[in-house]
């Protein structure tokens, strides 16, 4: 019931198995190094801590004496002509352009997501965890975003407005 020809290609099968694994590891290691290096920043110009609460955001400019403010969505009665309904807030995050900014993002109650699509930013706010994202904006303007996590009722009423100035 045994065939002596079964074990003839054992060395070749071992090479076919190990060689692709070695090639994949050689491709993955430089990619992981590059991915790690793009997430690091040495000297950011600003560090802002964003805390997600149920239906509003709290921002802390930690580099400037602990300036803290809340950002609530404006109700329709308080909107000016030209303001975007459900996207305008009472206090905007003001940031400089062409300067590296570190956003540290967390949550106090449930999962949130600090998202501004036009800047390419999306970072989850998790209770008990401090996530960070680093960006450098190149154009001035007002950029809008929202919480894009299903964090409870009215989660879409957590707008984010970043005003980038020269």
UniProtKB/TrEMBL annotation:
This is Cytochrome c oxidase subunit 2. Residues 43-166 form the Cytochrome oxidase subunit II copper A binding domain. PROSITE patterns: COX2 (PS00078), COX2_CUA (PS50857), COX2_TM (PS50999). GO terms for cellular component: mitochondrial inner membrane. Its cofactor is Cu cation. It comes from Papio cynocephalus. Binds a copper A center. The chain crosses the membrane at residues 15-36. It is found in: Mitochondrion inner membrane. The lineage of its organism: Eukaryota, Metazoa, Chordata, Craniata, Vertebrata. Belongs to the cytochrome c oxidase subunit 2 family. GO terms for molecular function: copper ion binding; cytochrome-c oxidase activity; oxidoreductase activity. It is a multi-pass membrane protein. Residues 1-42 form the Cytochrome oxidase subunit II transmembrane region profile domain. It catalyses: 4 Fe(II)-[cytochrome c] + O2 + 8 H(+)(in) = 4 Fe(III)-[cytochrome c] + 2 H2O + 4 H(+)(out). Its main location: mitochondrion.
